[in-house]
Amino acid sequence: MAQKLFSKLIDILPLVSASRSKIERFSLTAPNRYKVYSIPKRTSGRRIIAHPSKELKIYQRALLSSLEYLLDSHDSAYAYKKDRNIKANAKRHVRKKYLLKMDFNDFFNSITPDMLFTQFVKEEVIFSEAEKRLLKNLLFWNKTKSFDGKMVLSVGAPSSPSVSNFIMKEFDEFVYRYSKEKSIIYTRYADDLTFSTNKKDTLFDMPNFIKKVLGEVFEHKLTINESKTIYTSMAHNRHVTGVTLTNKSTLSIGREKKRLISLLVHKYKINEIDESDFNYLHGLLSFSHHIEPSFTKRLSKKYGSDILKNIIKGIYCE
């Protein structure tokens, strides 16, 4: 079935008078309409963010609206989906003794238009060459800004999460089936792969299987960051996407974060916190309340409910 994207875009865009030719002209320069900057990663190094222009984001959101019923994903995917989040992802593994974590290299920036169109073919969705060109130009970033440069998904585009989950659908299905046969729980949160089980020594074959599937599905265009492959068990600290799994089968934000939050709340109470630390505290408290609300209640009793409410509301007093 061929999708009539041009007419759908015109119906959705705020610029109702936009013609097919205007959309096509805009799409020609769209891959270069990104503001590029970097931010520190959680551990080491920096992450490249390519943020689309305001107008390009309108087109990308319109495309998402047009393709929403086609861009489905596997149930093992926990990122960028309604009623799915890091807490739900971690909760799937909380009662398991053994844990394996893996991570992709440069996830979004390794995903190309060919991967998207290959998945569409597998779903028996066929586009015309003009429609393919539109999708490629509006959804993908010209990383090198050169003529016929490498086109990849950008971290900052609103369309990239749904597109990446759709592209990973077949991979997730292969890994899910293999994991189920081995009594292993599998979840993927964007580029984070997590496996857990109560059967000892069953996780050690998983990395080789993942590499095999990546070769079969993506011809090794997606690769694993082997330095981030981690095995752990209940005898050690277990963390899944920043959430601590306790040996009591509960979720926690971890001791270090609790100590830091408590320190920053105290500094806020005595008016000795700067704005940067306050903004960080505001985010930490939201995270804490989501993952471990009992800790937030203890803070409220210790420092006063008004103090906690003001921080949560974002009230900063110089």
From TrEMBL:
What are its E.C. numbers?
Answer: 2.7.7.49
Q: Note whether Zinc-finger occurs among the keywords.
A: no
Which EC class heads this enzyme's classification?
transferase
Q: Which UniProt keywords apply?
A: Antiviral defense, Magnesium, Metal-binding, Nucleotidyltransferase, RNA-directed DNA polymerase, Transferase
Catalytic activity, as annotated: DNA(n) + a 2'-deoxyribonucleoside 5'-triphosphate = DNA(n+1) + diphosphate
Q: Which Pfam families match?
A: RVT_1 (PF00078)
PROSITE patterns from the entry? RT_POL
Transmembrane helix as UniProt keyword: no
One GO biological process from the UniProt record? Answer: defense response to virus
Outline the extent of the Reverse transcriptase domain: 20-245
Example of a GO MF term: RNA binding
Q: Which PANTHER family match?
A: NUCLEAR INTRON MATURASE 1, MITOCHONDRIAL-RELATED, RNA-DIRECTED DNA POLYMERASE
The record's comment on protein family reads:
Belongs to the bacterial reverse transcriptase family.
Sorted alphabetically, which NCBIfam families does this protein's record hold?
A: retron_St85_RT
Q: What is this protein called?
A: RNA-directed DNA polymerase
Organism encoding this protein: Pseudoalteromonas arctica A 37-1-2
